[in-house]
Amino acid sequence: MTKYDLHSHTKYSDGSLSVTELIELAIERGVTHLAITDHDTVKAHIQLAENKAAFASDKICIIKGIELSSQWNNMGVHIVGLNIDINSAAIKTAVVHQTQLRLERVKTISKKLTQRGFPDITQGAMTLAGEGQVGRPHIAQHMLEEGLVSSVGQAFNKYLGAGKVGDISNVWPDLEQVVEWIHAAGGIAVLAHPSRYKMTRTKRRRLMADFADAGGQAIEVCAGNQVPGVAEEMAAVCDEFGFYASVGSDFHNPDYRWVKLGQYPKLPKACKPVWELF
Ligand code: AMP
Ligand code: MN
Ligand code: MN
Ligand code: MN
Q1: Rounded Cα–Cα distance for residues 119 and 163 (Å)
Q2: Rounded CA gap, 268 and 254, in Å?
Q3: In what order do the strands lie in the sheet with 244-248?
């Protein structure tokens, strides 16, 4: 029996587990193929390559992945790259570029928040991110710890989520650039969690068409915490645009009870699984 989970995070981005802890949990949950897809970094895979002996396991196959931040019509969208060569020039370029953007972005967000009367959050967020890519979840956590908001959810709802003052998405590279990096690294480009972008069906179809035009090969038909019916809707999109289907929990943290590692809705039968391309 195989069980795929092609979207997951570690401490190297906004996940809470170390690479070893994530892999151990995956094995415990019966996942046989796990893609580690941190935001804009491949540090987890570098760590694994450096400690091959320590992490060797015949129970699980680790797929090299990344979740790259992109923009479409000024809206933040995420593209997962699967089966990438982490030593390729393209991935190195992508990571350097995105890391720089993340560092600049946290300062821009901080500035916007100070204009709203908040203290500077740059250092606090950077400290929480540690060796990992800094992101809005670190800002939200810092704001919570400083008593500036009552929950991480509130930080997103009021200040950091889509369309709010701290949502700065127009800095990210476009779909073409991101897909090009992934392809140059020998990987497969997958549109992450398509149902999570707040847009009309018509607009979503345009995003799908543009993603296909950019060379995107697959979409996540089954994601964690997805409402019933979405998988079937996305299966129809795959049929229309010729996309392969990916599955992934987008696991970040074992304390988030609504997303479990290896858990997502059943893949509709008509779909061509993305692992046929591996
Ligand atoms: P960033 O990578 O800095 O743009 O932050 C995006 C990340 O924030 C996503 O990958 C999620 O992990 C997290 N996130 C997005 N929306 C929310 C929300 N409403 N509540 C908590 N976390 C969120
Ligand atoms: Mn995340
Ligand atoms: Mn994402
Ligand atoms: Mn993710």
Answers
A1: 21
A2: 27
A3: 4-5, 33-36, 61-72, 75-82, 188-191, 218-223, 244-248
Q: What is the pLDDT of residues 109-164, one digit of tens each?
A: 999 999 999 999 999 999 999 999 999 999 999 999 999 999 999 999 999 999 99
Question: Residue 192 CA: which ligand is closest?
Answer: 3
- The model's pTM is 0.98
- Residue 105 alpha carbon, nearest atom of ligand 1: 3
Distance CA 40, CA 105 (A): 13
Task: Report the atom number in ligand 1 closest to the C-alpha of 137.
Answer: 8
Please provide residue 23's backbone torsions phi and psi, each rounded to the nearest 5 degrees.
-65, -40
Ion ligand 2: residues, CB within 5 A, are 14
Q: Which ligand is nearest to the CA of 133?
A: 1
Task: Name the residue of 69, 77, 109, 156 to mutate for ligand 1: max ligand atoms within 8 A of Cβ.
Answer: 156
Contacts of 257 (CB under 8 A, 6+ apart): none
